[in-house]
Amino acid sequence: MEDLLRPIYQERASHPNTLGILILEKKKPISPVTDNFDVILFIIVQNADDPWYVKHYEFENKSAAMHIVDEELLSQWIDTSSYRRAVEWLVEGSIIYERNEYVTQLKEKMRTFPQRKRDLKKAIEFAKLIRSYSESKDLYESHQHLDAFSRMVHSLHYLARLAIIEKGFHPEVTVWNQVRKIEPEIYKLYEELIESGESTEKRVQLMLLAVEHAISKRSVSSARHLLELMDEKEEPWTFGELKVHPEITPYALDLTAMIEYLTEKEIIDVVLNETKGTHIYHRKYKVRRHD
């Protein structure tokens, strides 16, 4: 199949802004990894006018999708897991062209998973976990047990992804296959939720306790990205300052839930500043000092 596509990728390889080309072939009849195309051509470029260009081909009853992605957008996808499919293409794809070992070095960076990037990913998943868990708990207490069950499935998924990152791996699309090998305790929680013979209400009740414990013991390490950023200045932060900080953008939508949780657990302190209104204070936040 690579031979049939050679004219397409050779033409792209001749472009001076092309950094690398990978190919990934479909390995089974239903293939979410390749979006059910028979082959993916993944081309990484720099200084692209269009940061993500896609073109579909058909040949000899086969289908192919070509994705041309700017390196800055790909870096964003890798750091934030915002498009996990592309990360899998990079990890699983075979290199058919690269300039100055660009793709080889990128794969190695992903394998080593630098601590700062790991902390960012943990913060993203932790913030999603906090919000999802809170929603599940609220739904349970409102006796909406099926909706609470649904949110709990999401919560366990975020917890699983967080556990994978803690072990130094990038979460893949097949996250539960990874978790079964890397963190069997969390996989067991998922099995208990899905397969238990207990009532839906009882299953959610038990998971709320288990997940609350799992969140609590991970809270400081999972929030390290936020806490270290807040420590960069002595003065307390307004929520608005944190929300618009460029490093927090990837989890800004879930920042409120994360801040409230860390405040409740006394990891972050609330600092009250007077306003012009009587007995109305402006809330600011700073990391609690533990001597």
What this model shows, in words?
This protein is of the alpha+beta class and 291 residues long. The chain folds into two domains: 2-112, Beta Polymerase, domain 2 (2-Layer Sandwich), CATH 3.30.460; 115-286, Nucleotidyltransferases  domain 2 (Four Helix Bundle (Hemerythrin (Met), subunit A), Up-down Bundle). It has helices at 2-13, 71-80, 84-92, 102-112, 115-141, 145-166, 175-182, 184-195, 200-222, 224-230, 239-243, 255-264; strands at 18-25, 39-45, 52-59, 62-70, 94-98, 237-238, 268-274, 281-287. It has a five-stranded mixed β-sheet with strand order 3-4-2-1-5, sandwiched between helices. A three-stranded antiparallel β-sheet has the order 6-8-7. Helix 6 runs parallel beside helix 9 (200-222) and helix 7 crosses helix 8 (184-195). The relative contact order is 0.09.
Keywords:
291 residues; alpha+beta; Four Helix Bundle (Hemerythrin (Met), subunit A); 2 domains; five-stranded mixed sheet; 12 helices; 18% strand
N-to-C CA distance: 63 Å
The count of DSSP E runs of length 2 or more, i.e. the number of strands, is 8
Task: Figure out the total of helices.
Answer: 12
Which band does the percent of strand residues land in? 15-25%
The sequence of SSEs as H and E is HEEEEHHEHHHHHHHEHHEE
Mean pLDDT: 92
Helix content: 40-55%
The level-1 CATH class of the largest domain: Mainly Alpha
Low-pLDDT runs of 5+ residues are none
Which helices and strands occur, and which strands form pairs?
Elements: H1 2-13, E1 18-25, E2 39-45, E3 52-59, E4 62-70, H2 71-80, H3 84-92, E5 94-98, H4 102-112, H5 115-141, H6 145-166, H7 175-182, H8 184-195, H9 200-222, H10 224-230, E6 237-238, H11 239-243, H12 255-264, E7 268-274, E8 281-287
Parallel strand pairs: 2-4
Antiparallel strand pairs: 1-2, 1-5, 3-4, 6-8, 7-8
Helix pairs in contact: 5-6, 5-9, 5-12, 6-7, 6-8, 6-9, 7-8
